[in-house]
Specification:
Length: 202
């Protein structure tokens, strides 16, 4: 049976606890700053003008997301597939949601706010890796931030080595792309993927 109203949803779930309400902050505190400094991975949620939703993973050395002040983050853009889905969405709808993960830690950090694109080299230069300055970055002005409990990651056993698959049991990215796109040589697709992983991370 489909749920069609907020009232019906609240009747099923009740109200959030006082703790769940009060943990929502309007700016970063020391714990939030420390978690971001330890995080090598953040997922960015954005939406297009037509209502389509998108999520994009961003990863680098722990602390790659710069905390400019208690209300502002800077996420460097590293070389990728040039689809620029997130950036295109932000040009039309600034609202974003971020989810920070830290390996070995089940709790996560959620940030909701408004993003804009920057190519200000004075901001981006400190985020260079191997002398390569990011072409652009996302400045995120924080509206709300809060810690998220670890139940989902505990259920998933995300950091448990025993749950990791044997990667050889699943097709390579080159093989999958060749199957999906068609007309592509598998060996060449795998060569390109390996070259990107080895030589074009920055």
């Amino acid at each position: 049976m489909e749920i069609t109203s907020g009232q019906e949803l609240r009747q099923m779930y009740g109200q959030p606890s006082e703790r769940a309400r009060r943990k929502q902050l309007s700016a970063l505190d020391a714990h939030c700053r420390n978690l971001i400094a330890l995080s090598p991975f953040v997922v960015i949620g954005s939406s297009a003008p037509d209502g389509g939703a998108d999520v994009s993973p961003k990863g680098d050395a722990p602390g790659f997301v710069a905390v400019l002040d208690d209300r502002t983050l800077l996420i460097p853009d590293r070389p990728g597939n040039n689809r620029v889905d997130t950036m295109t969405n932000i040009l039309n709808n600034a609202q974003v949601g971020l989810l920070f993960l830290v390996p070995g830690m089940n709790e996560t950090l959620r940030v909701n706010g408004r993003a804009r694109l920057t190519r200000d080299e004075s901001l981006l230069a400190p985020l260079a890796v191997g002398g390569k300055v990011p072409r652009t970055g996302l400045l995120v002005e924080i509206d709300e931030v809060f810690l998220h409990c670890g139940k989902a990651l505990i259920r998933a056993k995300l950091w448990d080595p025993a749950t990791q698959i044997d990667r050889s049991q699943f097709p390579s990215l080159g093989r999958m792309l060749a199957d999906q796109i068609g007309g592509m040589d598998v060996a060449e697709a795998e060569r390109r993927t390996e070259d990107a992983y080895r030589n074009r991370l920055y």
